[in-house]
Amino acid sequence: MANRETAVRADKPAIEVIGATKVLNGRKIIDRLSFSVERGEIYGFLGPNGAGKTTTIRMMVGLIRMNEGDIRIQGHSIRTDRKRALAEVGAIVENPELYRYLTGRQNLQQYANLCERPIDRQRIDEVIRLVRLEDAIDRKVRTYSLGMRQRLGIAQAILHRPSLLLLDEPTNGLDPAGIRELRDYLRQLAREENMAIVVSSHLLSEIELLCDRVIIIQKGRFVAERTLKEEATTDVLSFEIELAESDENKDRMAQHLESRGFEKVDDSGRWTIPIRKEHVPALIESLVQDRVPLMQARIRTTALEDLFLRLTEEGIR
């Protein structure tokens, strides 16, 4: 029976948010929001301040009830089968709560004692290796750096083998080295533990490096969903040139570039044009032949920050 249930759960998305709606004081905080995340996937959850991200996360972990819709975790409804649904979830909201006067291992053992699923010493040793804390696990947590505490918190959150890991602003307070270390670890975790990881963060550049897909919400509503790998490998690129600083023949050069389809970016001499990748060499050659005073030329990929700002400002679907 257990094997059959495991097989059924494996066919389900790690999480499905289906028309989730939350009303507070007569106002819709979350408005018919829907998305799903598969196991092994890292999913970015984005939106401006007040968009409803934290409210959605609280609904996902059962802290706030929905007015309409449903959330299913490995096929278990959080409305009708809350206990089994939440058994599939591990979560850290900002900084993990840990006993600083205990060692890292003692913290994990305390959490293991509270779990309904049996957790043996072998599993504790396994997650210690996963988060690479073998050399520090028997030290008091008060001696840990912030990055080490984040990794111990993640070890605690995945101890019971959840299908879904929710992280709200996981890089808060981390230095660049700590952020990179956490990013590498989360990628390893998604792959080796085959779990879905949902990350809410304001660091768009970090989300762009970390996530497979992102959702953008605004005022509790779905705005857009993007597969970042597809965005990075699109056929049509943005090709940008920067001219040498000179006022000589500026108007003539502007007319020349505009006739080729270039658009002025700003007053610093930068111009851009959409172009297919295979046409870039011929364009560079023609610019040189036309004696365009190039300072530099580059392919400019569409940054997630640009996409985020454009979509949230326009409010388009």
Summary tags:
317 residues; alpha/beta; Rossmann fold; Alpha-Beta Plaits; 2 domains; 6-stranded mixed β-sheet; 4-stranded antiparallel β-sheet; disordered N terminus
Which helices and strands appear, and what pairs or packs with what?
Blueprint: H1 2-10, E1 15-24, E2 27-37, E3 42-46, H2 53-60, E4 68-73, E5 76-77, H3 82-86, E6 89-93, H4 104-114, H5 121-130, H6 146-157, E7 164-168, H7 176-192, E8 196-200, H8 204-210, E9 213-218, E10 221-227, H9 228-232, E11 236-243, H10 250-259, E12 263-264, E13 270-276, H11 280-289, E14 294-300, H12 304-314
Parallel strand pairs: 3-8, 3-9, 6-7, 7-8
Antiparallel strand pairs: 1-2, 1-4, 4-5, 9-10, 11-13, 11-14, 12-13
Kindly state the percentage of residues in helix: 25-40%
Indicate the overall shape. Answer: elongated
Low-confidence stretches: 1-8
Counted by DSSP, the helix tally is 12
Number of E-type strands = 14
Backbone CA Rg: 24 Å
The first-level CATH class name of the largest domain: Alpha Beta
- Content-based structural category: alpha/beta
Q: What name does the CATH topology of the largest domain carry?
A: Rossmann fold
Overall mean pLDDT: 84
How far is it from the N-terminal to the C-terminal residue, by CA?
Answer: 43 Å
Element-level helix/strand string: HEEEHEEHEHHHEHEHEEHEHEEHEH
Largest sheet: 6 strands, mixed
